[in-house]
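Give me structure tokens for this 92-residue protein.
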Amino acid sequence: MRFLLRFARRLLLGIVLGLALAVAASPAGAEPPTTHEILSERPSGFWTSNRPAVGGAYRWRLLGLGVVIAALTGYGMLRLIKRANAERANRR
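Here you go.
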């Protein structure tokens, strides 16, 4: 258990230091690009299309998919937490 805590702390510290170095290494006065590629070959509403989706095409299906994925993930996490609590209670 202590190994995992030390590993998690070191991993978190490494991520924070890496992000800090990346921010420090970026030029201070760098401007984001002002032009972007115009994509005309793809249908409206597609992932990287520049044309707006007509009538909100794709929006509700993607929202529903995101809600389902979030619900399944949340349900799985609740089961894992309950199982871990039950195992810990049985050890005592």
